[in-house]
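stage 2 :: seqdesign
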């Protein structure tokens, strides 16, 4: 991550395979250690839910500030998912996995929502993981405070589109001759308007 711009690679493994609810079975498991879904490692079967698992690992990395696999740490704590999973669903203990560089300066409700989402993505049962569209919806809820009204992308684009004026609107109609005002031009103060 550079200036909080994430740089991801080795994702979208499921895109290379079949579409829809179909799966792909590989004879050689590929991918970066720590990101591959358990069912993919065990069977070579790749689905869209495999990518959801991998995304859960990335979320966990963002929350904790640790890598998916840290070989400098001994034992079970080496694997980020195994180390963090017991804390993800517990509001009182979540701070134990949060990146210490944040020094506690983060919205606790948002952190817990993100941790809960990561936990759902990391479910050992692929069918129990959310669809990526649901992951996106949850991330948008975390990002936008409840007080702010939610608008659709098309509505946002409509509201923020540049105003285009037709040249015809700014012209005087051809059958009307502009006349000078009989009154002298007086600049009104903002209160007089």
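stage 2 :: out
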């Amino acid at each position: 991550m550079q200036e909080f711009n994430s740089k991801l690679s080795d994702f979208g493994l499921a895109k290379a395979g079949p579409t829809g609810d179909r799966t792909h079975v590989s004879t050689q498991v590929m991918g970066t250690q720590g990101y591959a879904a358990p069912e993919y490692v065990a069977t070579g079967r790749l689905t869209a839910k495999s990518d959801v698992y991998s995304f859960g690992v990335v979320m966990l990395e963002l929350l904790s500030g640790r890598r998916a696999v840290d070989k400098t740490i001994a034992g079970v704590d080496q694997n980020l998912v195994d180390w963090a999973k017991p804390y993800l669903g517990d509001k009182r203990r979540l701070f134990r996995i949060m990146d210490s560089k944040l020094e506690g300066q983060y919205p606790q409700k948002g952190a817990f929502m993100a941790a809960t989402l990561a936990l759902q993505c990391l479910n050992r049962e692929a069918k129990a993981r959310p669809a990526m569209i649901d992951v996106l919806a949850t991330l948008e809820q975390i990002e936008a405070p409840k007080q702010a009204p939610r608008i659709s992308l098309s509505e946002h684009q409509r509201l923020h589109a540049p105003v285009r004026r037709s040249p015809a609107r700014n012209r005087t109609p051809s059958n009307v001759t502009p006349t000078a005002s009989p009154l002298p031009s007086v600049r009104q103060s903002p209160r007089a308007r």
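stage 3 :: structure notes
- The mean pLDDT is 78.
- The helical segments are 38-43, 48-64, 80-88, 108-121, 132-143, 153-160.
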